């Protein structure tokens, strides 16, 4: 579901689904592994099949934490229904697609 790596970016890979059934667990994982944001954040959703409003709240949390640290948040791999949700929700106005 969630995998976090520190390399050039802080890379957060989200797979399968991010919705109300696992959003709390996802947030706990993210909070426990990202203590301080010292580089830009890359959210990889290439293998994400579905995201709900609860999942979008997790993405918003990540973006706000990065912005507070003076860093940018990038989105990679959004396609199909997931890309449509990001577009319709307005998230692509503050997430940079790469």
Overview of this structure, please?
By secondary structure, the chain is α/β, with parallel strands linked by helices. The chain has one domain: Transcription Regulator spoIIAA. It is built from three helices and seven strands, in the order E-E-E-H-E-E-H-E-H-E. The strands form two sheets. The protein has a five-stranded mixed beta sheet with strand order 1-2-4-6-7. The longest helix is centred in the middle third of the chain and has 16 residues. The two termini are 21 Å apart.
Order of helices and strands: EEEHEEHEHE
What is the percent of helical residues?
25-40%
Mean pLDDT: 95
CATH class call: Alpha Beta
Relevant CATH superfamily? STAS domain
Instruction: Write down how many β-strands occur, each being a DSSP E stretch of 2 or more residues.
Output: 7
Give the CATH architecture: 2-Layer Sandwich
Major sheet: arrangement of strands? 1-2-4-6-7
**Helix/sheet category:** alpha/beta
Number of domains: 1
Low-confidence stretches: none
Coarse shape = globular
Oligomeric state of the chains present here: single chain
The number of helical runs is 3
Largest sheet: 5 strands, mixed
What is the CATH topology classification name? Answer: Transcription Regulator spoIIAA
How large is the share of residues in beta strands? 25-35%
Rg is: 12 Å
End-to-end distance, in Å?
A: 21 Å
